[in-house]
Amino acid sequence: MCVCVFCAVVGVAPQFTEKLHSQRVREGGSARFVARVGGNPPPDVTWYREGVQITSSPDFIISSDGDVRSLTISEVFREDAGKFTARASNKLGQVQCVAELIVERTSTSLSLSISLSVSVCVCLSVRMRVSIWV
């Protein structure tokens, strides 16, 4: 008796089933980019900011839970603003998605600027009064 068994392993190129979303955060806050990615074999995901690869660190936390991949920036600074890319790849291909991080100034920075301007105006006013009386 002869038994023939045929098994085919079908691969699937990476695809994002949930893409990144652009974010607007205040300076000092945190940001989290989340993507859901599928493929067979499961794809590796690499993160980039403005084309430069990001490695996991206390400032940039890269995590993976099943098909969900995320990048968390624990404390956002103005220089962190820019385009963030998640690139998924396996032996059948690669795909990427991009989102933008917009960093807004904190209200304390704005208040400080306003009070400095007011102080300068007050000093100028006092000088003018002194020169008129003399």
List its traits:
single chain; 134 residues; alpha+beta; Immunoglobulin-like; five-stranded mixed β-sheet; four-stranded antiparallel β-sheet; 1 helix; elongated; disordered C terminus
Topology:
Blueprint: E1 12-18, E2 23-26, E3 31-40, E4 44-49, E5 52-53, E6 60-65, E7 68-73, E8 82-90, E9 93-104, H1 107-133
Parallel strand pairs: 2-9
Antiparallel strand pairs: 1-3, 3-7, 4-5, 4-8, 6-7, 8-9
- CATH class value: Mainly Beta
N-to-C SSE series? EEEEEEEEEH
Enumerate the strands of the largest sheet in spatial order, edge to edge or round the barrel. 2-9-8-4-5
Helix percent band: 10-25%
CATH superfamily: Immunoglobulins
Distance between the termini: 121 Å
**Which of globular, elongated, flat, extended, rod-shaped describes the shape?**
elongated
CATH fold call: Immunoglobulin-like
